[in-house]
Amino acid sequence: MTEPQRRITEPQNERIEAKQSLNEVGSLRRDPFIRSFLEKVPDDVGATFTESQLLQVKLMYGTRGKASHAVDIRTVMGGFGWNYYLVLLFGRNRRELSKAEQTAANAWRVVLLLVGTFALFSMAVVALYLLKSFAGIDLLPKFSFGLWSWLSS
Predict the structure, then answer these.
(1) How much is the pTM?
(2) Ranges of H-type helices in 28-83
(3) In whole angstroms, what is the distance from residue 42 CA to residue 152 CA?
(4) Distance from chain centroid for Cα 144
């Protein structure tokens, strides 16, 4: 074997041996998520992870099974050779929002505030109108919305 060929194959052999020894060290390194994670990380960095660090990486990014939602509906629909899945999750957001998500959240807050204000204002006007009608006050002669007569009948 020539010198350039030896220099090329030696690092590859070292990487293969390092990956094999990493997989033999602990059962966590044989986990499919951790193996996939370590394949994406440079070999010299992957070799420095401890078992507890790898466990924390898996808990943070690997599995979402422990997440609890107020509403968690998962179903599969389809037939005749096609299938679609439907997932509806609803719960408290515990992650940091991006700038676009913050903008959308603020827009929804404004919309909900406006809708809520309109609903409260409408209920107050209807309550005052019913109170006026109950008291027998006639602000506009020969005109009525008919709400009081409908309710009192």
Answers:
(1) 0.42
(2) 32-40, 43-46, 51-57
(3) 79
(4) 51
